[in-house]
Amino acid sequence: MTEKYHIVTYGCQMNVHESEKIAGVLRRMGYEETQNKEDADVIVFNTCCIRENAENHAFGNIGALKKLKKQKPSLLIVVGGCMTQEKGKTEVLSKKFPFIDIMFGTLNLEELETLIRQKREQKKRVVKIRETEGEIVETLEPYRTSYPNAWVNITYGCNNFCSYCIVPYVRGRERSRKPENIIAECKKLVAEGYKEITLLGQNVNSYGADGSTGMNFAELLDAVASIEGNFRLRFMTSHPKDFNEEVVKVMQKHRKIMRLVHLPVQSGSNAVLQAMNRRYTREKYLSEIKMLRSYFPEAEVTTDIIVGFPNETEEDYLQTESLVKEVDFASAFTFVYSKRTGTKAATMEGQIPEDVQKDRIMRLVELVNSLTRKKSEKYLGKTVEILCEDYDEKRGLYLGRDEFGRMGYFKSEKNLIGEFVVLKITEANGISLYGEIAENLESDKAGE
Ligand code: 5AD
Ligand code: SF4
After folding, report:
1. Average of per-residue pLDDT values in the chain
2. Angle at CA of residue 277, ends 276 and 279, nearest 5°
3. Does the C-beta of 164 come closer than 6 Å to ligand 1?
4. N-terminal to C-terminal alpha carbon distance within the chain
5. Do 253 and 269 sit in the same domain of this protein?
6. Which of 237, 287, 378, 435 lies 20 to 30 A from 108 at CA?
7. Are 252 and 265 contained in the same domain?
8. Considering the entire predicted model, what is its pTM?
9. Beta strand residue intervals within 221-327, DSSP E
10. pLDDT digit string (tens) for 2-52?
11. Which ligand approaches the C-alpha of residue 168 most closely?
12. Whose CA is nearest to atom 2 of ligand 2?
């Protein structure tokens, strides 16, 4: 019988895509996927450490496997991702969970196969974490599970050292992939029928900043958008200190590039932005939004916001509220500041009490939700183009997103996954839209 793998992923899109690479390794080794932990022969935890609750979540889930491992000693328990890459974390994990078989980091994902083979030959636990980033490995073919969407890495790591953030410590310095490798991967995806490509990096705007690629991000974006075929192109994450008009001009040149930018602002207060080492001001951020909307008045912006950063006053927090209203974000990921050992902010005086943090996050979430709801109402009665992505068994409805990332649900007799459809919106419910098919762009084209 074929052995089976099960992967548990925590954290960001970068991790989701890395799990696809882990799946690629395991499939090449002959494993098959199972959704069920009980049926698995190898379980991989792809962890995240960006906030304390992401870590606690993983700790809880790894701990819960103790019984299963006892019943099935041949089960391989593997822990990888950002958490194992944290200083001293493998020791903590080893002590807490002696039943872990293998640990590897974000910087040596390509070694997973060797580590599994090594573990099969020895009783002792295998731990291999690279200290520094090496050359980019181009041979890790991902097993993609999100058709018609595909993620493509353009950079790895981060050089920014925002004072609250652990990413530069666990993912190393920024490295850019060669443009020819990125373009070849995108061409292949389009030829295979993928309909949406998202270029991924911690700060896509600094692509090639070390001079290693002969191309900057705007030029890369232009090259990818020039690939023939019917597909949508997105990119994330943009950093406000580097986002610029050259990129917006490329967006204007290609209708394939969605008029949605994910531009994390983190705070609306200049004092907090400075303490966060973000290297832009509230005014610069707002001027970028203005510039973007001077090209595309319909452009939408999504963002990340942290509340309760050390020394954040009520006045600072209100500055964030006022910026949120001014930009009118399509949506926002909102976080309570989480102290990460090893970062500069962890040593700052003036940590904010939990009750104050909680109060601010609740007020902010309410504000963001009210903006999202208002935007939903505007969709009523309108038609929007949706890329059908999935089928929701529970609701018996197909679903997909519009240009601005809004989820639209609809009924269809035919499987429309991977096709562009035009929906007439009949109901707008908080963040989700419901509609009827007004047009199926694929079959209409076929009938031309
Ligand atoms: N605490 C809270 N939020 C954080 N983020 C990064 N580090 C922290 C932290 N220590 C948030 C930022 C970033 C997003 C991916 O996670 O908003 O943009
Ligand atoms: Fe973290 Fe800042 Fe880098 Fe984003 S840009 S990964 S927040 S250090």
Report:
1. 96
2. 125
3. yes
4. 49
5. no
6. 237
7. no
8. 0.95
9. 232-236, 260-262, 300-307
10. 999 999 999 999 999 999 999 999 999 999 999 999 999 999 999 999 999
11. 2
12. 162
